[in-house]
Amino acid sequence: MKTTVALSPAPGSDFALTEVELTEPRADEILVKIAATGLCHTDLSVRDTLPAEMFPRVFGHEGAGVVEQVGAEVEGISVGDHVVLSFRACRVCGQCHRQGVGYCESTVLLNYLGTRMDGSTTYQHDGAPLFGSFFGQSSFAQHAIAYADNAVVVDKAHDLRRIGPFGCGFQTGAGTVLNVLQPGSDDALVVYGAGAVGLAALAAAHGAGVGTLVAVDMMDSRLEAAAGYGAAVVNPAELDGASVVEKVKELTGGGASHALDTTGVAAVIRDGVSALRPRGELAVLGLGAPELTLDAVDVMMNGKVLRGSVEGDSDPQEMVPRLLALAAAGRFDVDRLISTYPFAEIGAAIADSASGAAVKPVLTW
């Protein structure tokens, strides 16, 4: 069938709306008519770093839409179901069972290579294969092929134009708070990088009644959004000679019990660890510098923990419904973070995200 996608023809290129061919869903696949897709920094960072031989390509991994076809082997999903699309996992390997689906042994093959496991592609353009299958969906498209393992059936009362980010960005931030760090009413959580993921973390922490919240960012618009969740805010450019570590310790009564970093910047992570109280824990969520230097004496003598987290250690089949329920109950207020754009305005959405004019752009058909 023919469909329209936001095509990335080369590394770092602008997206262009292009008509392409989409294959029929196989026995283990579903066809989803996409209503909207969240724009995530991962779409852009991967676009900018993959080699040229892995293009042209269709990105998008926060899709939401309506199921139009269901393969013969698919269970639990029916034509007409509304779904949020998330990341893929095999769900049968040892890592999926022991560590969780975010740490699947086949993560790269299922989510990043741009093909099915057999090397075929779901999209074609001008008779040539077109890389897709990004997070098992490539939902910068009017129609996408997805799978039972990464399609979460949701109540039809939810607005499909606003729930796609629950499949990745919102899930990652909230999951890190609720599943990984689990701070309580007597704790202090610091978020470094108040973009969509960081603000989702603050929204979850605010809803869970965490005692002290702090947000560190360079953009005043993001800090204003963080303050809306009751967070004290720190702009490193406005500290008049004081350090971020000193300011965070002041705001948290001696140091943070919990922290998370979305920036991937080595210096920020180092400051985050330094600003922890004894036995504090910092979770790293953003990809960035491959190396960083820490004060090993400080880490050891104070029992500090630095750890990574993929998708907030979430299983989308459980976490997406959980977060939607929390949102409906007013305990995960993230709708305020969303700005919608027609897909034809994807360039403006990217620019607004970079400038801070929009926190979480969502592209709609």
Describe the structure.
This protein is α/β, with parallel strands linked by helices. It has two domains: 2-167 and 334-364, Quinone Oxidoreductase, Chain A, domain 1, CATH 3.90.180.10; 170-310, 3-Layer(aba) Sandwich (Rossmann fold). The chain is 27% helix and 26% strand. Strands 3, 5, 6, 9, 10, 17 and 18 form a seven-stranded mixed beta sheet that branches. It has a six-stranded parallel beta sheet with strand order 13-12-11-14-15-16, with helices on both faces. Strand 15, helix 9 and strand 16 form a beta-alpha-beta unit. Helix 4 (169-181) crosses helix 5 (196-208). The protein is globular and about 60 Å long. The two termini are 18 Å apart. The model has no long low-confidence stretch (mean pLDDT 97). Residues 12-363 form the Enoyl reductase (ER) domain.
